[in-house]
Amino acid sequence: MDPVASPRGAAPAALFALLHPIRARVRALLEEEPEAPPGHAGDCEPLGALGRAFHFTPLERSVLLCLLGAEIEPLFRKLVRLEQREGGRPWLELGTIADLLELGRAQLPTLFELFLPGGKLRACGLALVDELADGEPPMIHVRVKVTRRVLRFCLGVDEPPAGMSLRAEPAARLADSLVAPAVRDELLSRVRLSLLRGERLRVALHGVDGVGKKFLAEGVAGEVGRPILFIDMRGWDRRALALHLADVTREAALGGAIPYLDGWEALIDDGSGEAPPPSIDTDDPQPSATPKRPLPVPFARFLDEHADVVFLGARERHGQLDRLGSPAVHVAVPFPGPHQRGLLWQRAVADHGARLADGIDADELGRKFALDPARILAATRAATALATLQGADGDVVLDRDDIVNASRQQLQHELASLAVRVTKAHKWEDLVIPVEVYESLQELLAYVRHAKQVYEEQGFAARHSIAPGLSALFAGPPGTGKTMCASIVARELEMELFRVDLSRIVSKWIGETEKNLSKVFDEAQRSHAVILFDEADSLFAKRTEVKSSIDRYANLEVSYLLQRMEQFSGVTVLTTNFEDTIDPAFKRRITFKMRFERPDAGARAALWRKMYPAQATLADDVDFDEVGRRYELSGGSIRNAVVRSAFLAAAAGTAITQQHVLLAAAREAREMGALVADAGRPIDDDDDPPPTEPSKPAPSTPPPRLVPVTHRRR
Q1: Gap between the Cα atoms of 163 and 518, Å rounded
Q2: 8 A C-beta contact, residue 441 and residue 488
């Protein structure tokens, strides 16, 4: 197809018409007959837009036309073969360009300067220099070509490179940002003043992903009437950093936009190829400091030379930006609090044309799910789509299940790498615990459910400097229901329960244990999960006198845990069989302390009854009171015995009889070293079946004070 007749529009035809003088010069160099001039040269609007964006001089415009001609004009193939003695590649030597434009010696330095590392055509991403040339050829033999993006733009195809997104009309409202109004107004004033004076301004926005850093930048850009260009720098090749930054300069100039550089902190990360820190097994280890890398030279040069406003988004504040020619303005974008998250829920639901069902409190959603603004929008979008499919009258109502399921799908966390998810299959009616423990659990739940009313509305948090989190210590012998109670707490609060895996947390490398613990708390905070430290005495043990470097670093781990426990605003449950080994400082900071004792005879009988499912077939002779009186087993051992009795009955092909129950209990008691409550010896494998006459009645004892559970969980 003739390029002039391309269906993309008038841009290619106009560009070919503008190339006529250069084609004439090429024909002259090739000693060919000149062609007739076009009837109407017209104007190439994309090329004109480039000239206005970059303020081209006549020489710069002519040089760019030569480079464009080498891409689309067939005559250049002959010129390259003749002048440069090589194949028909679109690279032009600077000497060839000088011949085409008939430049004198006085103009050559200006031509060469355009393609130096800081030259206009090169630094602005308009042209490329052949870096693969052998050695350092003379400037007159340096080969250059136009970038493919500029070529497509001049042909009428305006598509930014991958990883860049231009918002020509920012839609974000600055007033809706989570940043304090005073900080917002100050930032807007600084940006306006810098644009008015033509000064450089580097705005560093730091905060966790999804809190609204881009939203704030887009809102500021909208207020000053400028487009914004989002650039994702993750995955950039450091070796081609200068080329990537040249693309940023070009795209920002083409759109008249303020660039927002996201993920730039990957350029200063330490990388994964470094040696691990020293082990605490060495004689005198020193903590291994791993400072961030300095800013790469091309990136620092870009920030120093970009004569406009630049937004930089990162997860944390980096001091490297303060060592530039003009220090950066740092703005912290906070993670929204529960009340702010409630407002975000209300705004997102209204923006999607839906409403919350009766009985759903937006503030409760904000307290229950620690979602950032981006995930709240995604959860609302998913819940609205589901409700729209289910609705029949056009009124989109989001019920509790829609909201909860959509929110949980957004809770993508990395806790699974350091902790194990605990299945929350237990219910209140499965428990057999003293009333005192049950009432303490109910009080714990009330603390979480009414935290806003007490801490914020009534001012207790400000008056008493109370830590935002809640912790509980479940102490007692093994098998007494500590982990089961933790799972019930998580279920009642509609939260996930993760048991910390000590094998993945504890490391012999200095600082690695603290780093893993920090990740656990951070991910639990973000994903609205209950942290369960099972066998907590291994991590929360008492600090000891420092007699060696090992003692010093062991105490550091305990001290770090103390700090993170106070900062954590979620729910932490600790279980231990050895309460006396827990450091006293932890005990003082723990909100609830509950003691789990071994069940008495009545409680054991109740456990035996509860642990047999309704589908199990029990014979009429099963007497749980007798089994509970005879064998002093904990709840965990009774559970094992219950399963054992079922397998014994299945092997015999009968219902579960008293013989199977007693035999399973006797074997479990023998293996666990448990005591027998009466003088009669337990049933052994070689014993004859127990007598069929009824057992002697148990002595009269006060009934145990068990959990008064009368309701069934829905």
Answers
A1: 31
A2: yes
Quick check: is 279 in a domain?
no
Task: Record the tokens describing residue 166, joined without a space.
Answer: 């231009």
Task: Provide the number of structural domains found in the chain.
Answer: 5
- Contact (CB, 8 A) for 72 and 47: no
The model's pLDDT over 134-193, given as tens digits with 9 standing for 90+, comes to: 667 888 888 899 999 998 888 888 888 888 888 888 878 888 888 888 999 999 999 999
CA distance 450 to 149: 58
| Three-state secondary structure of 593-654 | EEECCCCCHHHHHHHHHHHCCCCCCECCCCCHHHHHHHECCCHHHHHHHHHHHHHHHHHHCC
Reply yes or no on whether the pLDDT at 678 is more than 60: no
Q: Are 242 and 305 in contact, with CB atoms under 8 Å apart?
A: no
Confidence of residue 467 (pLDDT cuts 50, 70, 90): low
The pLDDT assigned to 278 comes to: 38
pLDDT at 17 over 80: no
pLDDT at 660: 93
Domain that holds residue 607: 599-714
Q: Of 300, 316, 332, which marks where a domain is finished?
A: 332
Residues 6 or more apart from 713 whose CB is under 8 A from it? 427, 428, 429
Of 103, 125, 154, which one is at a domain's C-terminal end?
154
Single pTM value for the model: 0.66
- The torsion region of residue 459 among left (phi > 0), alpha (psi -120 to 50) and beta comes to left
CB-count burial class (<10 Å; 0-12, 13-18, 19+) for 651: exposed
Inside any domain, residue 276: no
Instruction: Using alpha carbons, list the distances in angstroms from residue 622 to 35, 76, 644.
Output: 110, 100, 15
Mean pLDDT score, 526-548: 69
If we measure between CA atoms, which residue out of 208, 213, 206, 98 comes closest to residue 144? 98
Identify the pLDDT of residue 661.
93
Residues 21 and 74 both lie in one domain = yes
Q: Is the pLDDT of residue 240 over 90?
A: no
Co-location of 173 and 319 in the same domain? yes
Average pLDDT of 196-209?
Answer: 88
For residues 549 and 643, membership in a common domain is answered with no
Q: Which one, of 627, 629, 638, lies nearest residue 481 by Cα? A: 638
Kind of pairing, strands 329-332 and 258-262? unpaired
d(CA 570, CA 558): 19
DSSP state of 399: -
Residue 444: both structure tokens together:
């714990």
Q: Do 299 and 390 sit in the same domain of this protein? A: no
Give the CATH number, domain containing residue 249. 3.40.50.300
Q: Are 477 and 632 in contact (CB under 8 A)?
A: no
Residue 308, SS3 per DSSP: coil
CA distance 133 to 394: 67
**Residue 534 domain-assigned (yes or no):** yes
287 inside domain: no
Residues 303, 237 share a domain: yes
Does residue 207 surpass a pLDDT of 70? yes
Same domain as 430, residue 373: no
Please give the C-alpha separations between residue 204 and each of 176, 193, 242, 265, 614, in angstroms, as whole numbers.
Answer: 19, 17, 21, 11, 62
Q: Does residue 434 share a domain with residue 563? A: yes
Rounded Cα distance, 530 and 261, in Å: 35
Residues 121 and 104 in one domain: yes
